[in-house]
Design brief:
It comes from Streptomyces klenkii. InterPro entries: Pr6Pr-like. It is a single chain. It contains 9 helices and no strands. With 252 residues, the protein is an all-alpha fold. It has one domain. Helix 2 packs antiparallel against helix 4 and helix 4 packs across helix 6.
Length: 252
């Protein structure tokens, strides 16, 4: 049988086209990226743990998009850190992009809607010291560090246009989850609906539908913006894999 792979390629020199094997094999270990991503995961987990310690209703706590998105960041970044530390190929941009979008939604909605008294959906209240620290970790630290990881430690060009609408599956699923949970709780229950723009008692189902469409379009616009920026942003670190710019696999 004819061997279709030249022996020189398998020995780590060049392939038939004269391309060095080092240009097509996965990059080596990336300890700095691994440590940074582990710290991002730790920040997300720390914020969740602090909120858990200070909460008397874990069901309510874990119904928040904030907690769920930070939990997703913790898992994704811990997984990505392990792969960077061991020199394995990076996670798929579809996965890392989803985590980036969800945690960006968390940060942006909190700072521009929930903390903005003029938005009509503000959720301002007195916080304990633990809640204040958790609040900063979950709404500010993890969104900013996740964005920094994307901009500095990952190669551009991995996000595809089809990813933008695929990423919306989770936010769209969250809507019926929040409404169903609220419907099952007794009227007047504290935190019956996790966010003011999803409160059926305040807005009715017609108002919720309008809010859902508005936020859904905004989230899709954000997903498209991230995809576009990923295409045009510069590569801020020296590329180690010329053929696979996303680092998600040895070959494109």
């Amino acid at each position: 049988m004819i061997d279709p792979i030249p022996s020189t390629t398998r020995r780590g020199t060049t392939d038939a086209a004269g391309v060095p094997a080092s240009a097509v094999v996965p990059a080596g270990r990336r300890p700095f990226a691994a440590v940074f991503r582990a710290l991002v995961a730790l920040a997300a987990l720390t914020g969740i743990v602090l909120d858990t310690i200070d909460s008397d209703d874990l069901g309510r706590l874990f119904s928040y998009f904030t907690v769920q998105s930070n939990l997703l960041v913790a898992v994704t970044f811990a997984w990505s850190a392990q792969r960077a530390w061991t020199g394995r190929p990076a996670l798929s941009p579809r996965i890392t992009g989803a985590a980036l979008l969800y945690i960006s939604i968390t940060g942006l909605v909190f700072h521009f809607v929930l903390s903005n008294d003029s938005s009509g959906f503000a959720m301002t209240s007195e916080r304990t010291p633990l809640e204040s620290v958790a609040n900063q970790l979950l709404h500010t630290v993890t969104p900013l560090t996740a964005a920094l990881d994307w901009l500095v430690l990952t190669a551009p060009g991995g996000f595809l246009l089809r990813h933008a609408w695929q990423w919306l599956a989770y936010p769209l699923f969250y809507l019926p989850f929040a409404l169903a949970r609220g419907a099952l709780l007794d009227p007047g229950t504290e935190g019956r609906y996790p966010y003011p723009f999803l409160d059926v008692d305040l807005h009715g189902y017609d108002g919720i539908a309008v809010n859902a469409v508005t936020f859904g379009l905004a989230f899709y616009a954000l997903a498209l913006t991230l995809t576009l920026l990923d295409r045009i942003r510069p590569h801020l670190r020296a590329p180690r894999n010329r053929i696979s710019p996303t680092g998600s696999s040895p070959l494109k």
